[in-house]
Amino acid sequence: MPALVHQFDWPDRVVVGTVGPPGSRSFYLQVRDGARNTSVGLEKEQSAVLAEKIDEILGALMADEGNRFSVPAATPVELVDDEPLDQPVEEQFRTGLLRLGWDPSTAQVIVEAFPLEDEEEAPEPEDASEVLLVRMPVGTARAFVERTRQVVRSGRPLCPSCGRPVDDGHVCGAPDQL
Predict the structure, then answer these.
(1) Cα–Cα distance for residue pair 129/117, rounded to 1 Å
(2) What pLDDT was estimated at residue 71?
(3) Which mean pLDDT values do the consecutive 10-residue runs of the chain (178 residues) have?
(4) Rounded distance, CA 12 to CA 38, Å?
(5) Which of 32, 35, 54, 162 has its CA 20 to 30 A from that of 91?
(6) What is the helix, strand, coil percentage profile of the chain, to 5?
(7) Residue 101 vs residues 61, 89, 138, 142: alpha-carbon distances, Å
C-alpha cells in the first residue's frame, strides 16, 4: 500500500509551536496551505536539531560562491511569525525520523517527517505508512529557524548551578547547593 503523503510545496505557513505549560509542553511541526493544515508531533530535541540543520543548509548556501540564490542572513521582517499554532491542533502522527534536503531547481529546503510506527523506532523512509513533505523557500526557512529556536528556549528556566530545568519541585544536586 502506498504511503499517505501530506505534501506542501509552497506553504502559507510552516512553524514549530507548542501546546501546554512549560515543563509539560507538546511540540508540533505545523504546516498550512489555504484551508489545508497538518500537524505532526515532535520532541523538543528534534525541534532544536531540525532548526540547527536547516540553519546549516542555509549557511552552506550563503558560503558557496557559486550559489546563485539569495539567502537572507536574517529573517525578513514580513516573514516573522509569532502567532500561536492554528487551532485545533490535531496530531497526524508522532515523528520518528526527519530527513532534510535542498532543491536547487526551486530554491527550497525540503523537510520530510516520518512517523514512529511502533513507538520504538522510525521505519526506513521507503517503508513508512505516512509522510509529511514540506518544501519551503529560503526566506521561510530562515524564519522557521529563528522561530523554532525561540520556541525551544521559551521553556522552563535553567538552574544556574546544575543547568537542569527549574520547576516547582526542583532540588538541585550541585555541590554548592547541598
Answers:
(1) 8
(2) 92
(3) 91 97 94 97 97 97 88 93 96 96 96 81 75 97 97 84 72 58
(4) 12
(5) 54
(6) 25, 35, 40
(7) 12, 26, 12, 15
Residues 9, 108: Cα–Cα separation, whole Å: 9
Q: Which three cell numbers stand for residue 148?
A: 523554532
Query: Which of 96, 6, 108, 5 is closest to 43 using CA atoms?
Result: 96
pTM over cut 0.70: yes
Question: Whose CA is closest to 81, among 162, 167, 18, 144?
Answer: 144
**Grid cell 525540503 in the structure block, residue:** 110
Provide the CA 155 distance to its chain's centre, in angstroms: 15
Q: How far apart are CA 57 and CA 107, in angstroms?
A: 12
Helices 138-153, 44-63: axis angle to 10 degrees equals 140
- What whole-number distance in Å separates Cα of residue 81 and Cα of residue 158? 26
CA distance 133 to 111: 6
CA torsion, ordered 144, 45, 150, 42, to nearest 10 deg = 60
Contacts of 82 (CB under 8 A, 6+ apart): 147
For the beta carbon of residue 55, count every other beta carbon within 10 angstroms. 17
Cβ count within 10 A of residue 136: 22
